[in-house]
Amino acid sequence: MESIKSQSYEVHLEDLAEAALKQHIAKNNYSKVFVLVDENTKKCCLPSFKEKLGYSIDKVFEIKSGEEHKNINTCSQLWQLLSDHDGDRKSLLINLGGGVLTDLGGFVASTFKRGIDFINVPTTLLSMVDASIGGKTGVDLGALKNQIGVINQPQMVLIFPEYLKTLEDRQVKSGFAEMLKHGLIQDADYWKSLKDSNDYANADYIKKSIAIKNDVVVQDPTEQGLRKILNFGHTLGHAIESYCLEHEERPTLLHGEAIAIGMILEGYLSHQLKGLSKLSLEEIKNTFLKYFAPVDFNPEDIDAILELLKYDKKNSHGNVNFVLLQNIGKAIADVKVPENLFQEAFAYYKE
Hints:
A 4-stranded parallel β-sheet has the order 4-3-5-6. Strands 1-2-9 form a 3-stranded mixed β-sheet. It has 2 domains: 4-166, Rossmann fold; 169-350, Dehydroquinate synthase-like, alpha domain. With 351 residues, the protein is α/β, with parallel strands linked by helices. The chain has 14 helices and 11 strands.
């Protein structure tokens, strides 16, 4: 399966990924090779990855899984470990895990000694189709997602779909939400093909999603314009995700679960403000509710979620900027939304 060329690196899949990894290690005279894992990838993915690498690992660093550990404290621990194990500017950090781990690991590598090489090996569907492209690295600030970080590209990204077999169905569905988003913002035919598929986690669909995101990112690497469309569903979705993370009495939502709600809500806003047809809106809502159980929000929840919108990274000059759909396959960025429509959107979601 042909590799995908991004800005300064390539995304390699399956057999090509293994070959590219071995070639890269052989070509570069790294002083140290470190691998970052969490408790899940250490058990389920590290043994087979060591075989693929075929090279001595100097040290495996383990962090705890989960969004609640994607913070500067974890970074400090890893910077210290890199220093304690004689990491220098010619060291390599391989991040073996989901989006939380690759975001955090990329940020740690980008800032240790002003930057060392890193390779991302995403092991969840979400990280394969989303975090693998674009070079966004970073951590959360409290419950506020991705407030601290830099855009910095890995040496390469390696996709091994076999790792998806180690995941619970809920985790796979979380990644599926981002794949559906790619169709909604850029490719109506892909949306139609994907939304009724019983085998969405296969290599062909994964490659298609990566290619869609990559095409957007290559045209706008620093998110000055077009790249903003990748945030469809994320303005309200991130606020919902942060709110649930911050309130222990509420069940924590996975990223894709929160974004699925966000896409229904922002689909409603699209219908009201940008002419998305009622038929398309219903199609979007019914598709996401087919895969993701509805979540009940009371008025106090909604008020608190809307309060979090002021921290969204896309905000400018005090305005909350949304990405909305003109139709399925066509998105538009930097849309300002009247506040009264937020309550209407939640009411539509609850219907």
